[in-house]
Amino acid sequence: MLFRPLTTVLALAAALGAAASIVGAAATPEQKCRAAKNRTAGQYAACRQNAEARLATGGDVSKYAVAIGKCANNFAKAWQKASAKAAAKGASCFEAPLAASDFQTVIDAATTSVATALAGDGLAPPSNGLLKTGQTTSYGPGSDGDLQKGTARSYTDNGDGTITDNVTGLMWEKKSDDGSIHDKDNKYTWGMLSSPYTMNGTMVTEFLAALNSDDGFAGYTDWRIPNINELQSLVDHEKLGPAVNPAFYMDCTGGCTVTTCSCTQGGDYWSSTTSQNIIGAARNVSFSAGYESFKGKSEPLYVRAVRGGS
Q1: What is the C-alpha to C-alpha distance for residues 139 and 195, in angstroms, rounded to an integer?
Q2: Which one, of 157, 17, 45, 38, lies nearest residue 98 by Cα?
Q3: Mind listing the pLDDT tens digit of every residue in the chain (310 residues)?
Q4: Beta 155-157 vs 162-165: how paired, if at all?
Q5: Are residues 174 and 93 in the same domain?
Q6: Do 183 and 106 belong together in one domain?
Q7: Three-class SS of residue 295?
Q8: pTM value?
Q9: Is 207 within 8 Å of 181 (Cβ atoms)?
Q10: Are residues 174 and 92 both part of a single domain?
Q11: 301 contacts 284 by C-beta, under 8 angstroms
Q12: Where among 98, 118, 138 does a domain terminate?
């Protein structure tokens, strides 16, 4: 669990403090790192609340989006700085399985719930985990666009070429139009058409290898290809060409980078999921209209990397 009851925390702190005073030991690099990350989480939560307070009084959504982006960016930098400082002294600091994005997702959900309650609507009930489809046009009573069931989508642009899905906790690679490894026009193969049908195509050997090399893209080295359900979660069934939320398709002009734009091709994107009836094929999503299909694993398709998730 991420959080403990306050009495438990205070008792634990008292016990650790007493033990430290008895032996006269200085705080270890691990303890300093955990303390720094705890402060970072608190500072991010406060930053979010301040941004929400300004939104409540001013109503400027664009300024709110910029403020939230700065909160997230500062959070990521401080988090990585604490990790790097510990690593420089040969220490680790809860690098796995918990990550900055895990805490950020929890804090995002908490601050959103608080803002909802302060607006007089009460705390939101627990989500059933299913997202709204995005369809808002009603085609009669009981239709999807009429009921609009599911959890509302929420995304944060982290300012480093990534987008965090605040509902699923997944962090997505943005796509660019600059000829880089992130270029929206790049296509890659999935893998082997014959036994053992391994996922070892160019999306692994070239694309993921580049993202996860050295310090990693945006500071992470655990980028992967999304499974079919994760990839489908990006589809917005109200939109066409491409059928995605505006967070993944805006300001896409020639020469733009992942930090200055967000692109999506209206074509087929690979998932990591193999077709259950034709194992020489894998599942893909076409963002021209948001439908799922499958293609032979040697065929070159578009890709978008993801990280995180349970």
Answers
A1: 46
A2: 38
A3: 333 333 334 444 444 444 444 445 688 888 888 888 888 888 888 888 888 888 878 877 778 878 888 888 888 888 888 888 888 887 777 554 456 666 666 676 667 667 666 665 555 444 456 888 889 999 999 999 999 988 888 899 999 999 999 888 899 999 999 999 999 999 999 999 999 999 999 999 999 999 999 999 999 999 999 999 999 999 999 998 799 998 999 889 889 999 999 999 999 999 999 999 999 999 999 999 899 999 999 999 999 999 987 6
A4: antiparallel
A5: no
A6: no
A7: strand
A8: 0.62
A9: yes
A10: no
A11: yes
A12: 118
CA–CA distance, 72 with 260 (Å, rounded to integer): 17
* Residue 133 three-state SS: coil
Instruction: List, in order, residues 6 or more apart from 29 with CB less than 8 Å away.
Output: 85, 86, 89, 90, 91
What is the per-residue DSSP string for 144-207? HHHH--SBPP-EEE-SSSEEEETTT--EEE--BSSSSTTBTT--B----SSTT--S-SHIIIII
**Cis previous bond, 226, omega within 30:** no
**Residue 266 domain boundaries:** 169-310
Considering only the C-alpha atoms of the chain, give the largest distance between any 2 of them, rounded to a whole number of Å.
72
For 158, other C-beta atoms within 10 Å of its C-beta total: 22
Instruction: Report the 3 state secondary structure along 23-91.
Output: HCCCCCHHHHHHHHHHHHHHHHHHHHHHHHHHHHHHCCHHHHHHHHHHHHHHHHHHHHHHHHHHHHCCC
The residue among 76, 103, 118 that closes a domain is: 118
What's phi and psi for 303, nearest 5 deg? Answer: -140, 155
Taken in order 245, 247, 251, 257, is the CA torsion positive or negative? negative
